[in-house]
Design goal:
The complex is a heterodimer of chains A (485) and B (95). With 485 residues, chain A is α/β, with parallel strands linked by helices. Chain A has a single domain, classed as Amidase signature (AS) enzymes. Chain A is 36% helix and 13% strand. Chain A contains 16 helices and eleven strands. In chain A, a hairpin with a 5-residue loop joins strand 10 and strand 11. By secondary structure, chain B is mainly α. Chain B has three helices and two strands. Classes of the chains: A alpha/beta (485), B mainly alpha (95). Chains A and B meet through helix 10, helix 11, helix 12, helix 13 and helix 14 of A and helix 1 and helix 2 of B.
């Protein structure tokens, strides 16, 4: 069977279950394509030999009742994988080999999938372009000069370029949805507490969530159903009844009320984004949804709030990297000197910047003015959503304020980089699920995404809306394989 | 507001990240532009707002206090940059 890598996850699962394809054949196809695609720099660590062994073992005794039978998969290098190097895109974890497995990846392997390797990301997931990675920037398969978004940039690039049938990323302020939007792929950030954070390198613990990144909504639903489990190893994991997303998926969204928040019409938003949003509203109406204007009055305060809360939590989480217990160590004259040199040489510029912001806002004399203030505004932002959901079932917005930008274009201006996440950050602050689906192209032919935000634990509803709209949109990605010589 | 070099040096000490003069100047510039942007929050009156500490509206679950992982010493020490038998080794801290 030719063109294995062009098949969707659902097709591959079907073909393996009906024995038209073996796991070894599928793994070989994706590994070969990954090997030919080194120029994209999507991988940090490859694990192909082990993948072949596992595929062979699967084929010898295939369990076809599993949800991901013998499916090869590469994952973001923020998930700890037992006995395989996990770097979080940082020099400080360059030689770190976990002795345990993250719950989310364990769930995936339990359903029969096979690890192919670890995908590039911004250092400690801090970035919107994958340019802060110690392992170099990643190219967007849409165009070699474009960033793939971030922080899950290796993941978005690998799914769009079909180096892996599907993948997982993490999303603290938009790190799944923005790269999905930049590469014409689908990305879901689940409700906070839906997927366990155990074994994921921590960035901002009250915001971090793992989620699927896929070529289509159906594949996304299937992986979400696999990774979302209650886990007692994560104290913020929530024990609620989880849907069988792929089985319950329906295009019937007749009568669903979809809110359009006027505050998302931000100053300086390109007309293309405004037009895309209008088109999205028409698609939703075509699907039978009812459109309702709503207000989320504190939207403009979400980014400043995020840039207090996230760095504060990061500065605390990243205190563990001290050159003693694991990771990189720089030699020093005494213990303090060793700490300071280790952290100065081991962390990149953006990570140091955020640790410093976080340390400052938590420091004596400034805590109330910044951190407490931000927590209060966070409450107002969450209240906005609670009020809106009295009237609507979901909210439709653009995913990003622009299409993918050029490599190097925003690296010297942190604030302009942060503005990328203006539509995604409020969702993390309120702990809600959000999905980005590809919805059109700009004048340059670059993909643009729409975001559907749901009520807490209502992933099924936004997956259904995305599934219905996906059919109407009928998006086609323009990928020419330019990187394959 | 303005973050000066003295403040940067203070934060770098608290963060345990060494900075030289050049890096301190760059950081001061970056942090000032970021804090200008953050100052927007002062437009809002929040005196009577309860701070949000967790979006999950559930109380933490209790579990029985049992040891579930045992004999992890080798795993714990496995990734250390420098160790001696069962100990992490650091520069001398006692004179």
């Amino acid at each position: 069977m030719s063109d294995i890598t062009k098949q969707s996850l659902s097709e591959l699962v079907e073909n393996i279950k009906s024995k038209k394809l073996s796991s070894s054949e599928v793994t070989k196809a994706f590994v070969e394509r990954s090997e030919k695609s080194k120029e994209l720099n999507a991988y940090i660590t490859e694990d192909y030999a082990n993948a072949f062994n596992k595929a062979k073992k699967f084929d010898e005794k295939p369990n076809l009742d599993l949800k991901l039978p013998g499916i090869p998969m590469a994952v973001k290098d923020l998930f700890c994988t037992k006995d395989l190097r996990t770097t979080a895109g940082s020099k400080i974890l360059n030689n770190f080999v976990p002795t345990y497995e993250s719950t989310v990846t364990q769930n995936i392997w339990n359903e029969g999938a096979i690890l192919m390797g670890k995908l590039n990301c911004d250092e400690f997931a801090m970035g919107s372009s994958n340019e802060t990675s110690f392992f170099g920037n990643v190219q967007n398969p849409i165009d070699k000069n474009l960033v793939p978004g971030g922080s899950s940039g290796g993941s978005s690039s690998a799914v769009a370029a079909q180096l892996t049938p599907i993948t997982i990323g993490t999303d603290t302020g938009g790190s799944i949805r923005q790269p999905a939007s930049f590469t014409g792929t689908v990305g879901l950030k689940p409700t906070y507490g839906s997927c366990s954070r155990y074994g994921i390198v921590a960035f901002a613990s009250s915001l971090d969530q793992a989620g699927p990144m896929a070529q289509n909504v159906k594949d996304c639903a299937l992986l979400q159903e696999v990774i979302s489990t209650y886990d007692e190893k994560d104290s913020t994991s929530i024990d609620f009844k989880r849907n069988e997303h792929s089985k319950e998926l329906t295009k019937d969204i007749k009568g669903k009320k979809i809110g359009i928040p006027k505050e998302y019409r931000v100053d300086g938003m390109p007309k293309e984004i405004e037009d895309l949003w209008k088109k999205g509203i028409e698609y939703a109406k075509d699907c039978g949804a009812e459109i309702i204007d709503i207000s989320l009055p504190h939207t403009n305060y979400a980014l400043p709030t995020y840039y207090i809360v996230a760095p504060a939590e990061a500065s605390s989480n990243l205190a563990r990297y001290d050159g003693v217990k694991y990771g990189f160590r720089a030699e020093g004259e005494n213990l303090i000197d060793m700490y300071e040199k280790t952290r100065s040489e081991g962390f990149g510029t953006e990570v140091q910047r955020r640790i410093m912001i976080g340390t400052y806002v938590l420091s004596s004399g400034y805590y109330d003015a910044y951190y407490l203030k931000a927590q209060k505004v966070r409450k107002l932002i969450k209240n906005d959503f609670d009020d809106a959901y009295e009237k609507v079932d979901a909210i439709l917005t653009p995913s990003t304020p622009s299409s993918a930008f050029k490599i190097g274009e925003k690296t010297n201006d942190p604030v302009s980089m942060y503005l990328n996440d203006i539509f995604t950050v409020p969702v993390n602050l309120a702990g809600l699920p959000g999905i980005s689906i590809p919805a059109g192209h700009d004048a340059k032919g670059y993909p643009l995404g729409l975001q559907i935000i749901g009520k807490a634990f209502d992933e099924q509803n936004i997956l259904n809306i995305a599934y219905a709209m996906e059919e109407k949109i009928n998006f086609k990605n323009n990928i020419t394989d330019w990187w394959i010589k | 507001m303005s973050i000066d070099l003295k403040t940067i040096k203070h934060i770098s000490k608290l963060s345990r990240i060494s900075v030289d003069e050049k890096k301190a100047e760059k950081l001061a510039g970056d942090l000032n532009s970021i804090f200008d942007f953050i100052e927007k929050l002062n437009e809002l009156k929040t005196d009577n707002v309860e701070p949000l500490t967790s979006v999950a509206e559930t109380t933490l679950k209790l579990r029985s206090d049992e040891v579930k992982s045992k004999n992890l010493r080798d795993q714990v020490i496995k990734n250390s940059p420098k160790e001696n038998e069962d100990y992490f080794v650091v520069p001398k801290v006692i004179e």
